[in-house]
Amino acid sequence: MKDLFENSSGLRKVAKEIPLSNVKIKDNFWSHYRKLAREVVIPYQWEAINDRIPDAEPSHALKNFRIAAGIETGEFHGMVFQDSDVSKWLEAVGFSLQTHPDPELEKNADDVIDILEMAQRPDGYLNTYFILKEPENRWRNLAECHELYCAGHFFEAAVAYYNATNKRKVLDIACKFADYISDTFGPEEGKIHGYDGHEEVELALFKLYKVTGNKKYLNLSKYFLDERGAEPDFFDMQWEERGRKDFWQGGVKREWGKTYFQTHLPVRQQESAEGHAVRVVYMCMAMADVAAETGDVELFKACKKLWKNIILKRMYITGGIGSTSIGESFTFDYDLPNDMVYGETCASVGLAFFAHRMLMIEPKSEYADVMESALYNTIIGGMAQDGKSFFYVNPLEVNPEACEKNPTKHHVKPRRQKWFTCACCPPNITRTLTSLGQYIYTVNEETIYTNLYIGGEASISLADNEIKLIQETDYPWKEEIKIKVFTEEEIKFTLALRIPSWCPEAKIKVNNQVVDIEERTLNGYAMINREWKASDEIVLILKMPILRMKANPLVRADIGKVAIQRGPLVYCLEEADNGSNLHEIYLPKESTFEEGFDSNLLGGIVVINTEGKRLVNSEKWVNKLYRYEAEEEYIPSTIKFIPYYAWANRNVGEMTVWVREL
């Protein structure tokens, strides 16, 4: 029997996106973060790329473009991928303008686009590092120098801004650059038979194809994927051609090997997520896009293998991925250390985007579950509640003294940073928040899938009919979601409501009539098929018990421990509520939980309280490091859990997600 995604001709794309401008979010939880993105983070990033933040290291990103455009004089400064900071800002602006027009912001963006146009070389090339610093070395070190990566982020920005404003200039700049890349790379004689070290251009070319209809961009995206991992090794050949010279001291390639770049095997043969975590999920996004568009079943099956490996063996409970700071990488199955984790914010953003791509092909709730987990835990946890500081690394256990004094934990920070020399994570959060409306619903010819429960309204075209859905909810705090359906005339279609994997019991009523969910559930969605008319109302109750989550016994770091989860939110202990030495706290199996909403704490959260026990460090341990026959003593201790995303918004202190069970 064929999988859901296959038909007689191969792969078929089940769902389509709803235009971002058709979704208006009015949500008690998410509106705060989206407002921060518009009113705080985008302006802050604008100041950062213009080098106007006194206590942050200068970005120089926009100045590099001004110098390349001939507007200013000077030299290139910053990382080799510094251009991408400007592109990510512009992409977030594009998403923001699609839902919240802002003439001043649009004027700033137009001015930047004018500079980009002046900086672009006559042949279409646009990269300030190689324009200003090494013009003779274009495309000579693709393993390390991010040329195609920077191009990809610009293409994504161009598409988002064009969709927002319908202004062609930025799209024309992007197409000119993409045409030059197409003339430079490919299987034909005389072209470069290679690919970039950091996947990104593949998925961006696909977006450019979708907005322009130019199949040249789709074919080039497919070529980059097909060529990856081919023999002889492209990066080895370039290294030899350069006289074995490296860009980064020590040589990234020789230190971490082919798996770091996902070039150890052709993409269709890769069965486990290896190497740099962000690169893996960006590669998978492109694989899913190309597979769905071209009907490539083999490519999609490779996507599924990588997906399963990540979520079943290599993903943190918070939706974080990447177990080590060495190469910001995956390591091996079930290796999920809590205090040494990397869990880069960008990687969770990429995982959420990958999940969305998979959801577009196969409407299965497992994809939306992971997307939701990453959004509610790691992604928003990567930004402070005032929108002015950020995490690059998202640990599940923190001891501030260890972060300061143990060199192997220097990458873990007990407080968010104002900005980064490598500033990829803050703008990735911003573009996620400003594009959030894209992920709530997907639709095919006869079914509207509700993937996320976020308040607001959406206008959806279905079989030549316009349908409006209005969600009202206090999710993730409360269990009830109301969805009102508005149509001009009666229309029969299926409204598919996701039943999350964490929910042990769900109830649905349509116009106060109980719906039998068990008979209607398909792939994790309750399929409500009926003749819908104006003002029909669905009430969905998703029970949110407090769950003691346990890890697979093969996860050594979590054996004998539990994590607390309520709804999509993973909880943690923080020193501000529970004192220091959190490792001494145990949670008895018989402990019961009390939950309550505290409107004055951390922007308003549901806190969870329970009675635990704390190991006593008694006088018997004075002047002793080890003892035999040491009987453990415990004292009762009231403990408080807060949502993981909200940690590190108060004083610097310890934090832990996993707690020992007694």
UniProtKB/TrEMBL annotation:
Transmembrane segments: none annotated. It holds the Pfam family Glyco_hydro127M. Residues 447-544 form the Non-reducing end beta-L-arabinofuranosidase-like GH127 middle domain. InterPro entries: 6-hairpin_glycosidase_sf, Beta-AFase-like, Beta-AFase-like_GH127_C, Beta-AFase-like_GH127_cat, Beta-AFase-like_GH127_middle. One of its GO terms (biological process) is carbohydrate metabolic process. Residues 22-437 form the Non-reducing end beta-L-arabinofuranosidase-like GH127 catalytic domain. Residues 548-660 form the Non-reducing end beta-L-arabinofuranosidase-like GH127 C-terminal domain. PANTHER family: DUF1680 DOMAIN PROTEIN (AFU_ORTHOLOGUE AFUA_1G08910). This is Non-reducing end beta-L-arabinofuranosidase.
